[in-house]
Amino acid sequence: MLNDSPAIGTADSDLIKDTTTKDFRQDVITVSMQQPVLVDFWAPWCGPCKQLTPVLEKAVREAGGKVRLVKMNIDEHPQIAGQLGVQSIPAVFAFQKGQPVDGFMGALPESQIKGFIERLVGPLGPSAADALMAEADSLADQGDAAGAAELYAALLTQDPQHVGALAALAKLHTELGDLEGAKRFLTMVPPAKQNDPAVAGARAAIELAEQAGSLGDLSELQQRITADPLDHQARFDLAIGLNAHGKRNEAIDHLLEIVRRDRNWNDDGARKQLVQFFEAWGPTDDMTLAGRRKLSSTLFS
Q1: Which residue of 78, 192, 221, 228 has the fewest CB atoms within a 10 Å radius of its CB?
Q2: Residues labelled as active-site residues
Q3: Which domain holds residue 190?
């Protein structure tokens, strides 16, 4: 299989570090004379802190060295937080030229954290991680699974919870028939990101592969349909098998045929299966877009 097992990433000590009351002046005040420093006040018992910190670390890494992050456990070092008037956590303060200049409280989403950093250092543009992800996706689209896997794994060494890379590796392994390997990558997705569209798509692809694996010879299904065009179960199973063999357009047409003949069959099962196809293929995939148009035309004609 692919040599894509990610190494466990560690925080770059030049960008991200923990500090103490004794080291705060050096780690924050002195360094902020040269570039902005974010100070993350947190505590081990704080649930929102656990949500914010990895997102904050990712944003700092993706800023490409324009900003640093210093983390302070207020249970062990409460003095600085008290001096700054911190009353709830997580609390993040931005220091420039030795002074706090901006800040926020609570677990903000990634987009808002990026905006917060851009207020300090100006527009960031696409991150290095985004560029690497795009290059990996391009290789995957070209059929270079090994090359794509190497780049996805490189992303995971920088950010072990990079949802896009984990989902993409899960899909690559699914396409290669390694369903256990695919599932292994999905177990690495943080709980808060389990409903991410990329993760949902990878999960749908695994489910479809498992369904297809139990079908056996597709020619038998085709013979059943020829003998009885109203054998919707055979047509349904054939669609799943055709999708597994890359014949997506034929798979769509068979499911649409069921929808045309009996929309209510199997509790609207054909339409639901199409939706799962679209989820597995991705929202911008050409066949997804074409399939959605065909489905809309069928439903509303």
Answers
A1: 228
A2: 46, 49
A3: 128-213
